[in-house]
Fold:
Amino acid sequence: MSANDLKSGELIRLSSRVSRIIAPNPSAMTGPGTNTYLVGDRDIAVIDPGPDDESHIQAIIDAIPVGARIRWVLVTHAHYDHSQAAVVLAERTGAKMLGPKPLQDHFEDSTFQPQHEVKHDEVLRLGECAIRAIHTPGHIGNHFCYLIEEDQLLLTGDHIMSGSTVVIVPPSGDMKDYLASLELLRSYPLRQLGPGHGDVMDNPLDVVQGIIDHRLRREEKVLKAMQQLRRATLDELTPVVYDDVPLAMHPIAQLSLLAHLIKLERESILRQIEDSWHL
Ligand SMILES: [Zn+2]
Structure:
């Protein structure tokens, strides 16, 4: 599939039971836009309904075949670009909202209030189709991936994106959790990854290993910088550790850097004293 196919508003069929519509919210953070997945045939689960955008909500409703209904609106996590349309869609269609409850930090969408909180390894049955919820903390603490078991397709939300690196958002986001949640995916039979942003990816285990390697290389860079500087603030470290990332992305990269520093502090390698980090 070429990048030209990553246009918002079009219904793209990925398998006999899964299709995708991209929301019209492209940006540096969201890539081509948020992917909304429709799973099932008569009873349909909408996974990550996306932002509260009228054209997108209408595109989702228009994609439901005659005789079918949206039974569940399911979210991977309560970030606005994934969950904001949930309450609108549920009100209009009578669907039930499912997913993790948002945390009360200023990053999460408190309009998303699930009627059912999914649990780790819970299997949701939708006619012939089984959707397994997999708890994958890291990006934030209450993040879930959903495995469409018949297709061995894992819908990854913001745990894994195509084409860019996921931001780890402390305090609930956690680098150690993130790496463990990547490792966890090895224990499931996966054929493809359907990310929250970007196109479907083949060879899931290679993708997962690539991300782990990338994170560990970044951690190496943090350690190297600290060995030179001995002590540094977050602002001082960012340009050194992210010298390969455009300046405009540094405020966002700083969240992931903080997550690296917290991980290293927990491993007793670094110590934070007021605003600065010490080796
Ligand atoms: Zn997110």
The longest strand covers residues 129-135. The CA atoms of residues 12 and 20 lie 5 Å apart. The chain has two domains: 3-202, 213-278.
